[in-house]
Amino acid sequence: MKSMTGYGYQEKQGKDVSISVEIKGYNSRFLELAVNLPSQLSVLDPEIRRYMAMRCRRGKIEINLHLKEHDSAISVSVNRAAVTAYREAIKLASETLGIDEKPGLALLLGFEGVLEIGKARNDLGYWKRVEPVLTAAADQFDAARIREGKHTETDILSHIAVLESSVKIVASYTPVLETSIRENLKTRFTELLGDFRAGSVRAGPMVIDENRILAETAVLLMKYTISEELSRLSAHLAEFRTETEQNPSPGKKLDFLCQEINREINTIGSKTPVLEVSRAVVEMKETLENIREQLRNVE
After folding, report:
1. Does residue 277 share a domain with residue 188?
2. 37 shares its domain with 107
3. Number of domains in the chain
4. Domain residues for 237?
5. Strands annotated E in 128-255
6. Residue-level pLDDT at 203
């Protein structure tokens, strides 16, 4: 399990060039890459994105790359059209003002666009220099995410243990549920029909039809039984453990399992009138919310 938050930084000092790479990670439901490059390295943007997408599955990741060239080869050329235009303009201005003055070379070279300066570019050479620094920074970034992910995994599994314990508690009260339904039905029959036969002159105790109660109990048990919910809940928790321990990037799957676990917990809570079960349901909801909070930072 990896966290989505992390930090990595590496730099390499060379005789002719210095390169530094900084990687920051934040929480996000999807993979978002922000690549900040100097203009001469803009051609490497697609390659850097492909590389980071292979190493990260989701999260907002910011990659900042800086390059400083010390003794890079440059090319200098004269823009003939520009220098001629500047010279003619100065000549016209001199004639207009009645000044007999010719522009010097230093003056003309100082005008914008007269000298065109460019640096020799070697895109393949840039990538060969950048890749090892990027890899080292990404390794450091991953190491930080793994460290934080282990702490998160330990905390999440402790909450899963609480849920598993709560499921056992709820399951232990399943027989109580049947007894409660039966007693409630018997009370309702007594209240509804009264303690004496209706219309009878001689009062006598009302005889409760036990077979009728059993039949009604069976119907209600079919409606309110939580056995299926407990079975599915246990299966979801087991799958959650498997994904947590075996899947290196389980975030999305665990989000889905949390939804399913929450559905079963809510159904159990709505079906049972047993106080102890209701308390266990409240605890399970609180525990699940803690898990969901932690999952916001899991890749």
Report:
1. yes
2. no
3. 3
4. 147-295
5. none
6. 46
